[in-house]
Amino acid sequence: METIKIEIVNPKAMNLLRDMEDLKVIKILNSKPIINRDSITKLKGSISKQEADEFNEFVNKSREEWETIF
Question: Residues 55-70, buried b or exposed e (16+ Cβ, 10 A)?
Fold first, then answer.
């Protein structure tokens, strides 16, 4: 067995690698999510700081409620 390190230059390649892993041809040892910087730029500022704060408050409250149930 040989371990190699590769650089993904096209997001479609990751799908091919995952397909090969499903076929038990390879095993992906270290995988980071693919972050498309264009997507981040498009989303930045899409909600106001107030909306973000309200959403964070909602999430934290939901987590607390979930923890009290379990």
Answer: eeeeeeeeeeeeeeee
Q: What tokens appear for 47 in the block?
A: 């909600």
Q: How many Å apart are CA 45 and CA 43, to the nearest integer?
A: 6
Structure tokens at 44: 């930045």
Question: What would the pLDDT profile of 54-64 be if each residue is shown by its tens digit?
Answer: 999 999 999 99
What stretch of H or E contains 4? none
In the structure encoding, which two tokens stand for residue 45, read together? 């500022």
| Residue-level pLDDT at 33 | 66
CA dist., res. 17 & res. 12, Å (int): 9
- Between the CA atoms of 3, 8, 11 and 14, what dihedral angle is there, to the nearest 10 degrees? 0
